[in-house]
Amino acid sequence: MRALRAEGVIRGYHADIDLGALGRHVQALIAVTIRPPTREIVEAFRNWVGDLPELVGAFVLSGDADFLLHVAVPDTNALYAFVVDRLTERPEVASVNSSVVYEHIRRTVLEPLPPAR
Q1: Is the separation of the CB atoms in 78 and 26 below 8 Å?
Q2: Is the pTM of the predicted complex or chain greater than 0.85?
Q3: Residue ranges of the Transcription regulator AsnC/Lrp ligand binding domain (predicted)?
């Protein structure tokens, strides 16, 4: 463990949170497209979204969407309000595509991949 920490493989330790126990029973992945996709606008949106209490995590992407947001909210009404009242109020948001998460399967142990042949 010490060697993995020293090499930077292990960067920290985190609690496994039961979102439902926090009243966040609905999770969603939301693809967001930003226009125009300038560095300044993308970074400003990233900073804004990073402070939202609904956010569990965010990815900055290449491809059709610029961001993939993982949010957890109390119910579908709260999800609708988040998308319509928070995200689409931003002038740089060109499109939003939401997918409700039925189940989140996460690996708790990761091992190095075998070398490519």
Answers
A1: yes
A2: yes
A3: 33-103
